[in-house]
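Re: the 145-residue chain
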Amino acid sequence: MKISLVTRLRGINSALPGLLSGIVLFGVLCQLAGVFLVADKAGYSIGLWIGVFTAIFMALHMALSLNAAVERDVKGAQAAATRQNLIRYAVVVIIMGILMVTEAGNPLAAFAGVMGLKVSAYLQPLFRRLSHHEEKNEADQVKTE
């Protein structure tokens, strides 16, 4: 029996599939805007997608860390959550540092890609409401037919 990726992600956290798709959607929108607005399109694109993949890593790591933390006592959970936060932010700092030193991609575009996590998190309730509204409409149409 094959389990879909979305089902596996929902098993980790019910909001994770929507969060990840919001990050990718934000990346696509930034990519479309960047095509018209920046001179160094290659550097911009590389930096942006490095940032998007970093945001995806952060979302997955955060979901897994929270699941592990809730299984601990209060002090252990706080210590584990803090440690995992530091790991996440250290990864971001290291990736940004590598981009700045190597000039492989635009660090500002990478930062925009990482901010896709924040944008997606803030828009998550809206996306969830819209998706439930569509599911409800589809269910109503099936009942009337």
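The chain has a mean pLDDT of 83.
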